[in-house]
């Protein structure tokens, strides 16, 4: 479950000006699939960073299951985020010197989970990239990198999956495939899925929506 209440955030846009953002309250239940829509500059990515615990709100409360995320700090926040929240960023941030399998193993190691190559290989197989287990990130196509990013977001069995503009650079066919892939993986893990986007093509795919 993912919910917000009275969440706001401020940051300086110039030396003289400050931008203040107030976000709507919402509650996404476990296993539900939601779309967060908004034009560029509406604060979508800022809200995603708040929901992921990468930023701290100026006010309000963000809850993941029964935990108030913004009451955690330091190592406790890192551990909780690594175990409970899977984030798929617009850009794939991989350790370039490590293979696909090693990048996913690192995601588990960082939150003190045991190595599990069989789990990682099974997840890659589900995403049709099992043959890329020993490949370096530089050897992957853009689509393969996207699938590895999804695998990394899922490898620790998170209860919440956040995807930032996963279809912004895709044509209609690939957009539909990626969304169905995200939904299927979230459903298999019984995880809450929130897709953050300005892509209006997704309006007809998600029944539950939030608009900024």
Question: What's the CATH architecture?
Answer: 3-Layer(aba) Sandwich
Shape descriptor reads: globular
Report how far apart the termini are.
20 Å
Kindly state the percentage of residues in helix.
Answer: 25-40%
Detail the poorly predicted runs. none
Give the SSE string.
EEEEHEEHEHHHEHEE
The number of domains: 1
Our count of helices gives 6
Tally of DSSP β-strands: 10
CATH topology: Rossmann fold
- Major beta sheet summary: 5 strands, antiparallel
Instruction: Label the structural class.
Output: alpha/beta
Which CATH C-level class is it? Alpha Beta
Rounded mean pLDDT score: 92
Note the beta-strand portion: 15-25%
Specify the CATH homologous superfamily.
Answer: P-loop containing nucleotide triphosphate hydrolases
If you compute it from the alpha carbons, what radius of gyration comes out, rounded to the nearest whole angstrom? 17 Å
